[in-house]
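Forwarding these from the shared drive since the link keeps breaking.
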Amino acid sequence: MNLSVTDAMDEARIALRTLADRVEGIAHPTLRLGVTGLSRAGKTIFTTALIHALTRGGRLPVFEALQSGRIARAELQPQPDDAVPRFAYEDHLKTLAEARQWPSSTTRVSELRLSIRYATARGSLRTLTLDLVDYPGEWLLDLPLLDMSYADFARQSLALARAPGRSDVAAPYLAAIAAAPAYGPQDETKAREVAALFTQYLSACRSEKLAMSLLPPGRFLMPGDLEGSPALTFAPLDVDEKALKSGSLGAMMERRFEAYKNAVVRPFFRTHFARLDRQIVLVDTLAALNAGPAALADLERALDGILAAFRTGRNSLVSTLFRPRIEKVLFAATKADHLHQSSHDRLEAILARLVERARTRAHDHGAALDVVALAAIRATREARVRRDGHELDAIVGTPEAGQEAGGHRFDGMEEMAVFPGDLPADPNALFDPSGAGFRGLATAVEGDADFRFLRFRPPAGIGDGSIPHIRLDRALHFLLDDRLA
């Protein structure tokens, strides 16, 4: 089956599923909100905090529908899709409250349904069904693969692997493919060896020191039940314009690349992604700043690729019924609590600079796109600390075990006042094309990086009432308030 026929069949399935959703939505208005982000950006934390805020309330002054008292109640409802895992809200809340540990990272799609009973501005009572779809951002970066041939994928992936900032950790993989020509005979042992080294390279890129973001294929780092399957046993090889002959190693890799698209990427796109109405993308901007200019540039490319995957724009009657567009996208820089409040707006400005190209494209299509710096669960508090006769802005929290600062290694139990430093007032100062804008962990001498943001344990007292946050109410207002008017 050729690609155009496959695409047409996908579109037909999407249209039928969407029409069924809309027919159901006439009686029960429904909003499907996608929650995603790249590794360690805080997807599970955000979704848990959002559910807690809607079901238990809290201090959310900017979220008008809740602040004004128009939301009468929000309740958890049975899982909407029987074949999709339920988002384990109660388990995650228990982990936060009792163990003071962050929940485990998102490694698969999960869903949870809320019904929100509210009064409109005119006083009539209505119910909005909110379906939260939580999924790994790495899977989102797979969507461009649908429009690529294996040769395109190989050329782009190898260009990244050979780029400064990656070439050192890619060296074993690059050496392996030099000894495994694409036009040589197929060899299962060689294929498995090269695929394993390619996966190790992707994993090394995700380390704290490098903090790279653009790392497709996404399932290589979170294989789940596909681990060891041929669909995950391929890698980019050096190919030229010659066709790959049947029986060659390159043809074997090409076949498995197509299997990956058909078995992994297309079902995710068809079943989950194409049905979203709105989307929040969580971004660990501080991790890129820790690592250095190469990581920041890589994050910018990844975010541009993420928005390119969305079909954004203002919906018409036809698109609403058969092929919905995502009308609102919110990019959120997480972990704002790792900074003093004087830098929150600066963190937001850096994220706005990162998505500048994507923002222009979304606006041209009629979609609403915004940025915010937030902490869905605030792990620190602010303080003024006196040192050497000067008062300094500080944050106070409990660093996670194993974190280090100033030669001190934290045990996860002691509370500490930390001086996080200031972000630049002009975000463009970080985007020097020469890569000399600042020093990061990837290249700086130990202890000489310009930024070093620690990770903190969750605060004590979660579960007793409202959860402390930074700007979660702004996110909720942007994503939900117009549907609760």
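-- next protein --
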Amino acid sequence: MQNVKEYIAQHKDRFLQELIELLKIPSISADSAFSQDVLDTAEAVKKALEKAGCDLVEIHETDGYPIVYGEKILNTNLPTVLVYGHYDVQPPDPMDLWNSPPFEPVIKKTELHPEGAIFARGACDDKGQMYMHVKALEFMVKTDQLPCNVKFMIEGEEEVGSNNLSTYVSQNKEKLKNDIILISDTGMIANDVPSITTGLRGLSYVEVEVTGPNRDLHSGLYGGAVANPINILAKMIASLHDGNNHITIPGFYDKVQELSDEERAEMAKAPFSLEVYQKALDIDSVYGEKGYTTNERNSIRPTLDVNGIWGGYIGEGAKTVIASKAYAKISMRLVPNQDWREITELFKRHFESIAPKGVKVKVKPHHGGQGYVTPIDTDGYQAASKAYETTFGKKPIPQRSGGSIPIVSLFEKELDSKTILMGFGLDSDAIHSPNEHFGVWNYLKGIETIPYFYEYFTEMKKSS
């Protein structure tokens, strides 16, 4: 790949400004109030792919938000890379914790990003990382260095479960046919410690509702005499873990794959400072399942967490009330072999069974997906490893992630393709949180590294 650094240096300001303009659009798929913004973002992605050099770009309607498809086909005898990404973003709440408005991107220097970081919702997850691929294509096309075919599939529902993606994929297998799938929606260990994600956890997401009396009650007249749904919900949630932070749902661990001592020893070789980890989160101790390290707890072990809980009066001042209803949203991160539908049913059955008399319980499943482990002996992984080694000057470390990208297992099932997860973000980039950001260095490094993947993968496929 000749002159990639030179090309990036020449177009750096434009690359940043284009991303900033994309980040200004509040494409929040979870909130229907922003539906037009999500649609506008799809149009913006379409135009960006056209300008980058795709010969065909289409917006495909679904029962939800559209999927943007693009392609640059040089020769059907050449290998084909399918790039997946998403243009929707998480809600920015809580707004008062942002240091700058979430959809008014600003570049600020930080301790980890001395060259600056772009602060905005979606900066890292996933607009910034998705847009690296668009600019990498631009470089390869403009300099006549694209070595193979490329297809893009950019969706607008990843943050709400990719509900319509499976239908689209199953109905467009020939259009999406490829030799490897490339995704940048993960991270790496550090800017000086590159890594490739080789495993993802699955996900089961549910909402629970506890109902007590038929109306809100005066806490003086009724307190102590009827079940308080908020109190009951808190007790029920607390019972989902035991004293060792082991999940108490019967059957939950039946299919959990235990890693060997040798595999755990290999994981432990990854650089990790507990002191730095705690300092970054401003905590004085870590917390989790007994018998496992921090890096094991957040990658190879399943979890259950409350993502939101509400009920009763939460306004200013006091209101002495026993609420009629209480709610919570709960996510379970799953490891390979755990089926998300089965886990959802186990949760529902258990949660309903532990409800005391005096309340009624409803469990509403939202979405989920399977976990995924990718082998490291494939052409795809080796090409990615060589690409990182070329631009970072060191071999990347294979690493399992605690996050979930449910569609990865779908791709393997429907398209019979392996996925390579080339992430350039950092754990400290605050994705899904206030003050999300993405390092300028990381953004440009991704644009620099991705073209080498194309080059090395094409070489390997031709020689195999």
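Residues 440-463 form the longest helix (24 residues). The first strand starts at residue 56 and ends at 60.

- D.
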